Hints:
The chain is an alpha/beta fold. It has helices spanning 25-44, 59-67, 81-94, 112-120, 158-168, 188-199, 206-217; strands at residues 3-9, 51-56, 71-74, 99-102, 127-132, 139-145, 172-175. It has one domain: Spore Coat Polysaccharide Biosynthesis Protein SpsA, Chain A. The chain is built from 7 helices and 7 strands, in the order βαβαβαβαββαβαα. The chain has a 7-stranded mixed beta sheet, with helices on both faces. β5 (127-132) and β6 (139-145) form a beta hairpin. The longest helix has 20 residues, at 25-44.
Amino acid sequence: MRTTAILPVKSFARAKQRLGDVVGSEDRERLAAAMVTDVLAALTSVAEIDDVVVVTAEPLAAEAAAKAGAAVVNDPEEVGQSAAVSRGIDAALERGAERALLVPGDCPAVDPDEVAKLLARTPGDPSVVIVPDRHGSGTNALLLAPPDVIHPSFGPGSRERHEQAAQNAQARWRVAHPRSLILDVDTADDLAALRAALDARAGGAAHTRGLLTRMDRR
């Protein structure tokens, strides 16, 4: 089954505003860039993923995507994650995708082996696999077969919306909890959880690890 990973990336200067109390603006931009680079590295190493589409208006993210061999879709309006993902789904369908894995750019701890296992357990077509955030109410990732089986609606309470959308589409659906995919970074608590996860695991997220180490030294 041809699989496209879709990675929506907000402009780095606008990213991670909720970290403002603990991370300065320049470091927030660097952190956003490092996390995207690590997510790209993880996704492009998964054999079950045929290609990666990055939806962004950020030149540095587009450059990183091109270096990783990913396709770039411009997101000039930047009106939100759901709209960006919709652009990515259109591009994935044009590229012949039979399913799409939607992954945020702020999950740098993502484990390629966990992604491969998630893809191996797709329940069939049409289907929806929902990966919630660590709080349980949001959505970090979606696996959709076909890519347009539902219209993604991210944001607070999105897990319930995605479950309802899957039921309305009469698609088979399930909730999965890959440990490395539930760790996105929006708040200081999220950043602390990411640090703990990286400390407990050897390897992966090289750019994010390096930046966090430099930040600690300062």
